[in-house]
Amino acid sequence: MAIPEAGAPPRLEWRVARVVAVRDETPRARTLVLEVPQWPGHRAGQHVDVRLVAEDGYQAQRSYSIASPPEDGTVALTVERLDDGEVSPYLVGELRPGDGLEVRGPIGGYFVWHVAVGGPLLLVAGGSGIVPLMAMLRHHALADTSVRAAVPVRVLYSARTPEDVIYQAELERLAAPPLLEVVLTFTRAAPPGWTGYHRRIDRAMLEAVSWPPSAAPHAFVCGPTPLVESVATLLLELGHAASRVWTERFGPTG
Amino acid sequence: MQTEDLRLDGNAAGGVLREVFAHEMTAAVATCAGCGTMGPLGALLEYGHRMGVVLRCPECDTPVLRIVLTAGLFRLDLSGLQLLTIPASVSSS
Questions:
Q1: Could you give the 3-state DSSP secondary structure of residue A113?
Q2: ipTM at complex level
Q3: CB contact under 8 A, B11 and A248
């Protein structure tokens, strides 16, 4: 399969990235756009490790998914703040353009997708689990029209409330049914007048949003562990092959 | 907080796996010595702890791969691993 050889340098070394821009996505989530020296390129779905070192030498390390597409030379991380976290409050609240940040990557060869792999593509996200799926969506949007037309995409995105929806404006802009459909469900508060889903992702919702197993969609599921495991189990129950379901669990580590 | 909230998967161990194996490993396929289930390391269940990482079989909970970093040494317990198949190139995944 002709997939570019990007995203796996022989050695994994810590490098000091430069923050070139920050962008608030929600009241709790911020995108950091990084320039990483000697960045070898990445694949949609990969992540980087971020390391913070305190003056006394104490280190804290976290993994954050890359939101920018492979076509982009910069590395965009979207980080959600966990108030009692050690790392995320600093990344979301303190980092400014011009600051340095130690990163290593890109990392990951399993939870990755390239448009040449084809589709249909089913993306199921819970909360900040949308981040690596956004890299896939952006990658898809940048493909040649003829290539893109052969790969329909459906996104099912579960968020607690409307203000927790990351990339909302961009998702609305990218949506172009039937080629690209975006379906939201809210698990706590829905917007006034909302007629869409207002519950956790369940079997009926997945069956309605996804393609049938006979269409053999590539399903990527990312979010909190309980959501990922529930969705993956439901997809198998609906008849999707395990080899067509890719999962990535996000933890509450802050 | 429930235990399942602390359980991640092998994707999160990609960095330390690269340190140990000098290779992208999350797409490498492991065969569990406990039940024979085959699957990518990225899909194993990860239980991180201060000293290292444990990757368990999602089917039978056997610890397939244990990595402990101590005194400047990586110590690997591979007793739960029957076979490990590593793609020679990332493009083949």
A1: strand
A2: 0.89
A3: yes
Count of A-B CB contacts under 8 Å: 92
Of A28, A86, A40, the closest CA to residue A66 belongs to: A40
Question: Which residue in B6, B15, B87 is closest to A251 by CB distance?
Answer: B6
Task: Provide the CATH number for the domain formed by A115-250 in this structure.
Answer: 3.40.50.80
pLDDT tens figures, B43-89: 999 987 778 899 999 999 999 999 999 888 999 999 999 999 999 86
- What is the reported pTM? 0.94
Could you give the CA distance from residue B90 to residue A42 in angstroms, rounded to a whole number? Answer: 11
A15-107 CATH, one of 1.25.40.10, 2.40.30.10, 3.40.50.620, 3.30.190.20: 2.40.30.10
Put simply, whether A251 touches B (Cβ < 8 Å) is yes
**Whether residue A212 has a cis bond before it, omega within 30° of 0:** no
A189-206 tens-digit pLDDT: 999 999 999 999 999 999
Contact criterion met (CB < 8 Å) for B15 and A251: no
